[in-house]
Amino acid sequence: MKTVAAIWESKLFFLTQCIWLLVLAGVGACTSSAPPRHYRIGFSQCTNGDAWRQAMLAGMTKELSFYPEVNFEIKDAKYSSALQEQQIKEFLKEGIDLLIVSANETEPVTPIVEEVYNRGIPVVILDRRTTSKLYTAYVGGNNEEVGQTAGNYAASLLGQKGEILEVLGAPGSSPAIDRHRGFVQALAAYPNLKLTAQVNSNWERPSVLERLPAVLRAHPTIDLIFAHNDRLALGAYQVCKQLGLDHRVKIVGVDGLPGAHGGIQLVQDGILKATLLYSTGGEEAIRVAMKILRKQPYDKENTLSTMVIDSTNVLTIKLQTEKLASQQQDIQRQQRLLQAQLATYTSQQTVLYILAAALLGAMVLGIIVWRAFRVNRRITQQLAQQNQEILSQRNQIQAFADRAKVETEAKLRFFTNFSHELRTPLTLIMGPVEELLTNGADLSAAQRHDLALVRRNTQRLLQLVNQLMDFRKIDVGKMPVRATEGNLVAFVREIMDVFERPARQRGINLRFLPAEPSLRLWFDVNILDKVFFNLLSNALKFTPERGQITVSIQLVPGERSVRVSVEDTGSGISEQDQAHIFEWFYQGNQEVAKGSGMGLALAMGLVRLHQGELAFTSQPGKGSTFTVTLPLELPAELRSITALPAPTFALAEEISAPPLLEEVVPVLSAGKDSEALVLVIEDNAEVNAFVAQKLRTHFQVKTATDGASGLRLAAETIPDLIVCDVMLPEISGLEVVAQLKADWRTSHIPVVLLTARNAPEQQVEGVQAGADLYLTKPFNPTFLLENLRTLLNNRERQREHFRRELSVDTATVAPQRVDQKFLADLTAIVEANLATSELSVEDVARSLGISRVQLYRKVKALLGTGVTEFIQGIRLTKARQQLLDTELTIAEVAYRLGFSSPSYFSASFKAKYQISPSEFRALHTTPSI
């Protein structure tokens, strides 16, 4: 009994033999018929610019469609014999099997045609003969016969009597010569026919339009014009029509081409009397050429016949030519379809061979696969076990990676939150220190030195906190670029000014070498300030005394960028540290001046954020050079119309910084601030107590520890100022500001936001919420106090503005803002109750829906007066208007406006305007006559 393997092997062997037979049969079928030989025919044409030549090419193209093995190339001499000779030489260099020539001029082209013929290359002369008999075949019309036929037709047309004008072709061309000769020979048989004049041309109509008018004017008795082609005949007709001779002079042309502008149509339209058919010979030339190339019998002289086309036969010939053209189009469509079918057949035949070969290969591969099947199955089982182990390990690695990512994120979040929380205790440290340094006149020099040391190190700690927060922003992509157009040279110069003093103290030469005095481009001030500050701080840190630091700025036009280099003569960077200096928290192996390991990493991140590059070169013991390359142009989305001011950075702990605000903040002067009420909203108890303590010596102070209680106190007490933290429980400081500005009771109160959030976008967010001032922690108490006083002064100026609006000419205030709406509502209530003498402050407050105290503080804050004074002012203002009405007595005016008696009205009016009501009326009214 046979095994399964033996059966499969026998079947595969049988199938393989069958496939081989199919392939051999296909190969035999392919090799049984030899492929046709390909030929290359060159055609040197005198021009392709006229309709007759284009008809010739169309005939050639039609005939060549039957010979796909022919590569046909045309060169147009454009009526230049020299160019035609050069083109024939090019055909010889390129290699052709046969040359077809239609000469521009007979004699100049003859030598090169003889050269081609002598080289053994067949030459077919088309239409225009050469002067030599060294050619293989001639195809063309008999131009002498054309001339004779034209002469005989002219004799019959004129009754063998009249004057004739001949328009000849180009001088020297064989068709012009032969047609003239035949025409003259025919006219010799008619003694009463006279060839009166001749006009030469270049075979084109413009030459006739230029030369014929003068000849016709000289010979006005011309009866017939014989033109050597239909284009010349059309030109002759146009001239005759211009001279008014078109009805008398008969015109005969040559060519007889079909088409809308051909001679046949001109005869049918009556423009020409007749045209002589002169076949192009395009089809016949290709047929003769193929007979020559295929070694078939052919005639050397292939003369094409001619005939006269006139009104007697023009319609028949036109119908025949149109029918031939339609049949030719049908033939061309059938040929295209046949070619498509042949291409399909060829592709299908190729696919069949490919499929046969593929089937053979598949069978061979099937044998190999079958033999390897059992081995592969065993290997597959082993791989499955290994894949399961790898999958398990991958899952473990993924779990470890996810856990590490979560832990890393938690660490970064911890550092960020921790850094944020550090700003509050820094406020409590820097605030008292700044207060002591500013107002502590009794401090000794040692105490001032110690306090300056505390402040400097606090600033250093604040700088590290800011760097940690910037690192987190870059890591999560929350640090936007807000570039503005500025002078980079001046910007870097300002940063260097900070380092002038510490560099001078250590004897370091700080040089600035800009290549241009001014260099304007788009850059983010906040970002580049941190970058260049860190680079200069590092350079100053690692440069020894008497060393040198050079900052240079160079424009690189070829790269559309600018380079800022910071070069020092310090100790340099060791080779092992150079690969890690841009890593976060990497401190290297420096024995001195170790930092936090964040400065260069932060600078690198900021430069990349700014779409720039930060690179360095260093030689241990010789110094380092850090180069910042910035693009001259930034995308539109990174540009900003206005920029936030750059934050001030403290210098490194080794550099003595100037005292903060000591030189710019004046000593506070005593004033009447104690009347103003300030509400402090701060959730941190120590900061709340610190701010309240600093403000109580100058203002009345109330405090709240959350946003809800702060809003409640603000509505109840109507304070003059509010100092609010941003990070509050439940209701944030931004929401507090928004609610305060939306409530007309508190909308006028200036709000100062005090927060540890120092990012530019956070400051913008605070200002957009409606805050009047945005201060970041840690802050200078003196600076805070002066800002509060400035805000109070601004409110006083606003009161004056509102008081001016409430003049006699302004009855109400336009409700464009919340405060103006409040004054408009208050004024409307008072004016509606002017006649009520018992109108009280409680009545007005009740109408507005607020308490008496809230109304008093709101009016006091806006106008600086009490409610009663406000009501009295409205009544007296109305009194001035009504006193101008002489029909009312002074007593009637008094009672109308709610005064209890005329005497009280007069006293009040005179107290305000220093004039009695009667005197005011007498002054402003004219007595009647």
From TrEMBL:
It catalyses: ATP + protein L-histidine = ADP + protein N-phospho-L-histidine. CDD domains: HATPase_EvgS-ArcB-TorS-like, HisKA, PBP1_sensor_kinase-like, REC_OmpR. The keyword Coiled coil applies. Residues 677-792 form the Response regulatory domain. The modification 4-aspartylphosphate is found at residue 725. Keywords: ATP-binding, Coiled coil, DNA-binding, Kinase, Membrane, Nucleotide-binding, Phosphoprotein, Transcription, Transcription regulation, Transferase, Transmembrane, Transmembrane helix, Two-component regulatory system. Residues 824-923 form the HTH araC/xylS-type domain. Residues 417-634 form the Histidine kinase domain. GO terms for molecular function: ATP binding; DNA-binding transcription factor activity; phosphorelay sensor kinase activity; sequence-specific DNA binding. The chain crosses the membrane at residues 351-373. This is histidine kinase. The lineage of its organism: Bacteria, Pseudomonadati, Bacteroidota, Cytophagia, Cytophagales.
